[in-house]
Amino acid sequence: MARMASKELEQLKHTVPLEVLAESQGYTLRKQGKDFVVLCPFHTEKTPSCVISPGKNLYHCFGCGGGGVGAGLAATH
Ligand SMILES: [Zn+2]
Fold first, then answer.
1. What's the 52 CA to ligand 1 centre distance in angstroms?
2. pTM for this structure?
3. Residue 69: CB partners within 8 Å, gap ≥ 6?
4. How far apart, in whole angstroms, are the C-alpha atoms of residue 11 and residue 54?
5. How many A from CA of 26 to the centre of ligand 1?
6. What is the pLDDT along the chain (77 residues), one digit of tens a residue?
7. Could you tell me the distance, in angstroms and rounded to a whole number, from the CA of residue 16 to the centre of ligand 1?
8. Which of 23, 36, 41, 43 is deepest in the core (most CB within 10 A)?
9. Which strands form 30-32's sheet, in the order they lie side by side?
10. What is the reported pLDDT for 65?
11. CA 71–ligand 1 middle distance (angstroms)
């Protein structure tokens, strides 16, 4: 798992919900049950397969297996 790029991102992780952070980074979120799916930042795809779990502050891509926690998603974008 990649380290956080900066202390600010580390702080954001605790103050901003992951789905809000992702949206602010230009991700288009689609609601799926209690989770959200977005286009994966790790590989090119047309159908979103990267699942954001707001409750756990985690994201995971079912297409390529990439994932991480919280603000790492924004840092990857
Ligand atoms: Zn992926």
1. 12
2. 0.74
3. 1, 13, 57, 58, 59
4. 16
5. 17
6. 556 567 777 776 667 888 888 898 899 999 999 999 999 989 999 999 999 998 888 999 999 999 988 777 877 65
7. 23
8. 36
9. 30-32, 35-38, 50-53, 58-61, 67-69
10. 96
11. 17
